[in-house]
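Fold it.
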Amino acid sequence: MENIEKMDQASLYYLEKAPVSKAIMHMVIPMMLSFIATIIYNITDAFFIGKLDNTAMMASVTLALAFSSILMALGHLFGVGAGTYVSRLLGEDNSDSAKKVCSINFWSSILTGIIFMALCLPLLSPLLHLLGAKGETLLYTRNYILVFVIGAPFVIANLSLEETVRAEGASTASMIGLISGVVINIILDPIFIFLLHLDIMGAALASVIGNIVSVVWFIYYLQRKSAVQSVSIKDFKPSKEIYKNIIKVGISAFLLDGFMVTTTLLFNNYSMLYGNSVVAGLGISQRVIQIIDFVGMGFSMGAVPLIAYSYSAKNQERLRQIIKTTVLYMIGITLGLSVILFGFRSQVIGIFSIDPEVIAIGQKILFAQLCSTIFAGLSELFTGIFQAFGTGVQSTLMSSLRGIVFIPILIFGNLLFAVNGIIWAITISEGFTCLVGLILFLGIWKKINPAHKAESPN
């Protein structure tokens, strides 16, 4: 019992007692490294496929991004909801319930993946047309997606388990799980694509195997190393209350990823109107911009367990410092990286394509997306804060708004400004969403600011 208590204290140190800057860096740096590893994989994937000198194949990978977002949405539905719930439970010193939540998260993710696979296999052809695949890209997109359909249970479980591991402050363990899968991806990519001549299907297969490796690591950690969580079937005791707490926050993450699917589908279909060069340029720019987007996500997602724990423990001073410090760090790093990428935009795009048209349109798209990075990062942080508080209304509104606003902006942008309207649609919609998030956040700031403690209902 004494050993378990020591493990609990070590696990929760960064959530509860560590200096704010140290706690933020402990949670954020491993997450950034994980994201950077993921970026390296995505870039490597695109790099190897690009070496096949097939623009249609490169466009197919871009079209398939929307499908990947569906799996991400399902993983985050359980993972984000369960993760923030676990952090709040730990703030209340309730590790028994945290174990139940973690187990429910894992087994629900696996079951959802199996159901998803059973539904998608007979509907593969309609899905391909919905994604915008046509002509030469149709077969390539089908081969890529088929592998992900079969591997859906592992992809969803990987995403959901990573969230709960990080929820207890174990950011390093979370990083190890993510990076191990990415390393496997990178090793297997050239083997499957070139040596075994599996082409685009090989890239997908390498990714799914990487997800399986990550899931195995997370299961090992939660069963053998964690003192406050478990994926054991004996802790799988579903209840209406637990699912309610998971879903009310998880739905915001689900909608965010779901609307990402919608926006990606619209982006793909509108981009296809202007040819494969625009689609390929969009795909390259999206991969490059992830370098900055994942920095914002690293801060916003990394800080969520810290925010949730302090909020549940009613430590308002620490909560206020965590939020302020996170915002300052995130804005500074995001701006710095944006300036660097802008300065080398032509060279960066040129790494992935020698087609002059792709390079030209890729630079335009990259510039527009660089302009949206600050807005996107702050929007994600506001959403994360609302998720950490367990406030389903605000977090769901933020997640929905990012997709809803984008649709009319894209449609009218295309009508009025053709391809330029499509390129700048994301920047405009992210800016608007950020403004709404700021207004919603200011509405709850009085409850966080110690100067208003006397006025707070708590």
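Residues 276-312 form the longest helix (37 residues).
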